[in-house]
Amino acid sequence: MQIEFNTEPALAGPVNVNTLAPISKIGGLQTGLLGFTELPAKTTFFNIAGAVGFIGVNGGVNAKPIPPTAIYLQNKIGQNFPEYVDPVSKKDAESPITWSKLAKSPVWTTQDRYLYIKTFSETYGNQSADFWNTREVHHIRPRIYGGSNEFNNLMPILAPNHRLITSWFNNY
Q: What's the pTM?
């Protein structure tokens, strides 16, 4: 068995299997034994690939590839970025990140939220009160990392998903 961990540490995107580079390989695992590897603790895009096979009594090898997994964004404590795509605007909460933390986060007010909802409704059509009562406005690039209150940096997101993303960024 061989497992390969790949990373794209620049975080600049676009990320695909061609931009990933190996960071660790585990090979030669035997039946009943576990292998492990220590990976650098840092925010990175990564995926896993590999192969599994058997050596027959005649010495022949029968190996099958383990197809590469999806590419995940992981923070410095190993949490995968919570996947979320808004079903109306089709905006993705995840984006390439090469951001530095600011000393202070820019202000976000109820007036900013009102203006966002107004522009969202003009762009994508009116949504029900239930839609907006269950969603918060998410800054794709967080304000503390230089994100603005501009429409293109915002998306509606279910409140529990927003809490997961905010928690993820606490360990960015």
A: 0.72
